[in-house]
Amino acid sequence: MTRAVSSRADPLARGETMNNFESLCRQFADLLGGKPEAQNGVCSVGLHRRFSVTVQGRPATSVRPADLLFESLDASGNALNLGEIAILEEEVPGFMWSLTQQGIIVSGLHNHWIYTVPNILYIHLQSVEPPLRFAQKVARAFSALQSPPSSS
What we know:
The strands form two sheets. This protein has a six-stranded antiparallel β-sheet. It has a three-stranded antiparallel β-sheet with strand order 4-3-8, with no helix packed on it. It is globular and about 50 Å long. It has one domain (about 20-145). The chain has three helices and nine strands, in the order H-E-E-E-E-E-E-H-E-E-E-H. By secondary structure, the chain is of the alpha+beta class.
């Protein structure tokens, strides 16, 4: 049996143009201070943390991401918003408090790598709400970090 895809879940099926989604994606990225990438109904913004880190004594720049995205935009303007941000151990309490006080779910906090100096963790966050509201909340929470993520 074939199930019909609800036009409410797919912004393109509702007659919205890709330009509207891309415009929303640009606004999302602007609020976060990054560059947008819109592809297949997913808007992502890749940022980087600005601190030096070594893994097993070697300089490592790829281990400091701050990736935020939204997808599954519905007719009400709500989307699934997700993020993963590299965070210094001493930043955890303030950043986590700022996120949770704004209603963002912190769904994970863990390490990826061992033998890092300094010790870095990765915090996962999520919400279902308008993506621009999520971006505003995350941008506010960035003030709890020693240095906010940037696109360069």
